[in-house]
Specification:
The chain has 324 residues and is α/β, with parallel strands linked by helices. The chain is 47% helix and 18% strand. Strand 10 (231-235), helix 11 and strand 11 (258-263) form a beta-alpha-beta unit. The radius of gyration is 22 Å and the shape is globular.
Length: 324
């Protein structure tokens, strides 16, 4: 536990566990330096007490970030530089009401929680809606968090199976020329979904559930004619589905099912003459009861910090090219 003591422009926070305090600070106080640079404060560590100096709002954000990271350590989760940057970003911009209700998801291998404000909003919408669209650039956690939500539903017994799908090889699914049987043909395009599952559950457990049919990973074309009841269903890379494919997929939703659709409308591989099913669905279903939409931006990227700056640079270039 920790306690706060405030005096003028400084706030003190005390932690109980010396070992965890050392991990919280990082080697040579590297984690504290990240918080200082991100939030514009000064942090002075003295044993188990941290003194935080700066503007009142910045101090509050820093205290929230430190508490969040300390709680992560208490749960046995490691804290790396990326986690510290994410905690700073989350404490800086997330409304207190959203932060307090955004669920964390416990899986056999790790506890998964929001690392940006929009991720907190996304997790909240996944938990409260039957159909949620996660839209934005690569690296923002859209698919990973959707898979985590599905894993949580499966392990809690809220659903009976997980169904993960993608358009295979662009949207036309032209996979006939590839060597191997059907599984060998489509697996390379579904690999990111396997990777997410293996990051949350042990590989042998995942394989057993796949063999039992409790986890299914298949191209979108395999969904036609089915009713997906009591399932957690995810369509990834949805920008590469045609409007007809998207309508077909969305209308597979059955009783007791939860569906997440993720993608980046700006990255479609469809021919110029074919509209994106994701963009069409977002426009068509806007305002429909039971449907939620979460938007991500470059600042939500949780990969290497450079990825966010790369996305910003490409967006700026595209904006310049559209000017007369």
């Amino acid at each position: 536990m920790s306690e706060h003591k405030t005096a003028d422009d400084v706030e003190h926070i005390d932690f109980d566990d010396n070992r965890l305090v050392a991990e919280l600070s990082g080697e040579h106080d590297a984690h504290l330096s990240i918080l200082e640079d991100s939030l514009g404060v000064r942090i002075d560590p003295r044993g188990n007490r941290f003194s935080v100096r700066g503007a009142a709002a910045a101090r509050d954000q820093t205290i929230r970030a430190l508490n969040k990271l300390y709680q992560r350590l208490q749960q046995g989760e490691p804290v790396a530089a990326g986690d510290v940057r994410a905690a700073a970003k989350l404490s800086e911009k997330t409304p207190a009401a959203v932060a307090s209700v955004a669920p964390s998801i416990k899986t056999p291998k790790r506890v998964i929680a929001a690392r940006t404000p929009n991720q907190a909003i996304y997790l909240t919408k996944l938990a409260s809606h039957d159909l949620t669209f996660g839209v934005g650039p690569a690296g923002t956690g859209k698919t990973y968090l959707a898979v985590a939500h599905a894993v949580g539903l499966l392990l809690s017994g809220a659903v009976e199976r997980i169904i993960l799908s993608r358009p295979a090889l662009e949207a036309g699914e032209r996979i006939g020329f590839l060597p191997g049987d059907m599984k060998e043909k489509v697996d390379p395009f579904l690999r990111p979904l396997y990777d997410a599952l293996h990051d949350m559950m042990h590989a042998d457990y995942v394989e057993r559930r796949i063999a039992a049919g409790d986890i299914e990973i298949a191209p979108i074309a395999f969904m036609r004619g089915r009713t997906l009841a009591r399932s957690a269903v995810i369509l990834d890379e949805a920008q590469n589905a045609t409007p007809a494919q998207m309508k077909m997929f969305l209308t597979r939703l059955g009783e007791g099912a939860h569906m997440a659709v993720t993608g980046d409308p700006s990255q479609t591989d469809l021919p110029d003459t074919v509209g994106s099913g994701l963009a069409d669905a977002l426009a068509t279903l806007s305002g429909v009861e039971g449907v939620a939409e979460a938007r991500f931006v470059a600042s939500d990227v949780v990969r290497h910090p450079l990825v966010s700056r790369i996305i910003d640079a490409y967006d700026a270039r595209d904006q310049r090219s559209r000017r007369p």
